From TrEMBL:
Region forming the signal peptide: none
UniProt keyword list: Membrane, Transmembrane, Transmembrane helix
Entry's transmembrane regions: 32-48, 60-79, 91-118, 130-148, 160-176, 183-203, 223-242, 254-272, 335-352, 358-376, 388-407
Annotated organism of origin: Aquirufa salirivi
Protein name: DUF3464 family protein
Length: 431
């Protein structure tokens, strides 16, 4: 029975972060990843149903959001193209690179989320020191890996992954030094899940292209990253020991709430709901150019964000405590707004050309049903480095099998790239 509870709990979190990460495909970058990360974090808090976590819920949620959002600086479009090649060495390189990128998303997201779960007045996390160390780690790793050694993953694209790797290294050392082993378990499993999910998603994308089925298989890849990353973060959380801090008093957390309901959403709106982008996405769906619809989408989306933000700030200002019902209401509203903005920016509110937009709604309904059914019994597992190394080896070997299948499943396809084996002309061609 306990295994069934755990599996249903993992499925619920996986679907939550998977759906949110697929929605993130319309928005991208740090703000989209942060919003998706916040949804996965809320799902775990709801399933855990711990009063001591409710007291600091928004701090936990924004930590998970910021952690998952950091990885949004990394470029991976070219790496995905390596996975679409016909040579095993290029495909495996592409999938392993995606494993690293997805792993960094999950590791930092899970790590900061886990640290917030451990944070209390008796054992406070030194957040300022951690942030400084992560910034220094990013600078040092980027300088040596990219500037000095020139170990480039995606030339000529941006190589910010090296800076994010430095942040992950600093975060790891901080958790070791402060003996935050439960948070480290969450980071490790979220990283393993996110890494596998990204590589496996690219494999599914290639097979989807070969099948010639008309569907957004790029979105399938994004869903896979969030799904497995969410499962990893949830597994690390539900199988670790967390000190009970029910004596902690609820305090209004203005900054986390402000970040979640106004700053992140407004940034996403400012970066995405531009007229030039709306003209490219909505105008082709119309029989004739109608700027009024595009203007309506632009300003209505802003009003939705502002109304929702003001509502949540008003509710929070009057709250003297938070319970399960309060968090679930926020989950529904926050998730629902994210879906609605996706439907608006794609034009799916008047055109059915984007089928996946309606699948988000179906996923959302299933998630809400599962949340009403699931609960979890926490287990207390320590970090088994040998077992984790074994699991990592199995995952890397399995990715090799996926790379072999993908490389031999098709001839040359659009947007494929080579990292190795590119033919260099013997002489410069004449103009």
């Amino acid at each position: 029975m306990n295994n069934k509870k755990l599996l249903l709990s993992l499925l619920t979190v996986g679907m939550s972060l998977g759906t949110a990460w697929a929605i993130r495909g319309q928005f991208g970058h740090e703000h989209g990843a942060a919003w998706a990360g916040s949804i996965g974090s809320i799902a775990i808090i709801l399933i855990a149903n711990r009063k001591d976590w409710f007291a600091k819920a928004f701090q936990i949620i924004v930590s998970g959001a910021m952690g998952w959002g950091i990885g949004g600086v990394m470029s991976y479009g070219l790496v995905v193209g390596y996975g679409r090649d016909t040579e095993f060495v290029n495909v495996y390189y592409g999938l392993i690179s995606l494993f690293v990128i997805g792993g960094l998303y999950g590791f930092i997201g899970g790590g900061l989320f886990g640290l917030s779960l451990s944070n209390s007045s008796k054992s406070p996390v030194a957040w300022p020191r951690l942030l400084v160390e992560m910034v220094v780690g990013a600078i040092l790793f980027y300088f040596f890996i990219i500037q000095q050694y020139e170990w480039l993953m995606t030339p000529p694209r941006d190589e910010s992954w090296a800076g994010v790797l430095g942040m992950a290294a600093a975060l790891t050392w901080f958790m070791f030094r402060t003996q935050q082993y439960s948070a480290l378990r969450v980071a490790l499993f979220a990283g393993l899940g996110g890494g596998f999910g990204f590589a496996f998603g690219n494999f599914l994308q290639v097979l989807g292209h070969v099948s010639e089925i008309k569907f957004n298989f790029w979105n399938v890849m994004e869903y896979s990253l969030g799904f497995f990353g969410g499962i990893g973060m949830a597994y690390g959380t539900f199988t670790s020991y967390w000190e009970n801090t029910t004596e902690e008093k609820y305090s209004k957390q203005w900054f986390p709430v402000l970040m979640l309901v106004l700053i992140i959403p407004f940034t996403m709106w400012q970066q995405n709901f531009r007229m030039d982008r709306l003209e490219k996405t909505i105008t082709p769906l119309l029989s004739s150019s109608d700027q009024a619809i595009e203007l309506s989408v632009r300003w209505d989306s802003l009003l939705l964000i502002l109304f929702a933000g003001i509502y949540w700030l008003n509710v929070h200002s009057k709250s003297k405590s938070l319970d399960y019902g309060d968090i679930k209401k926020f989950f529904i509203g926050h998730f629902g707004l994210y879906m609605l903005l996706s439907i608006l920016i794609t034009g799916a509110f008047f055109s059915t050309y984007r089928i996946e937009q309606y699948l988000y709604i179906a996923n959302f309904v299933i998630i809400l049903y599962l949340l009403s059914q699931v609960d979890v019994d926490f287990e207390n597992h320590s970090i088994s480095w040998s077992k984790y190394a074994k699991n990592l080896g199995i995952v890397l070997a399995f990715i090799a099998v996926l790379a072999y299948i993908a490389a031999n499943s098709h001839d040359d396809i659009k947007s494929s790239h080579k990292r190795f084996g590119v033919e260099i002309p013997l002489e410069t061609p004449k103009p």
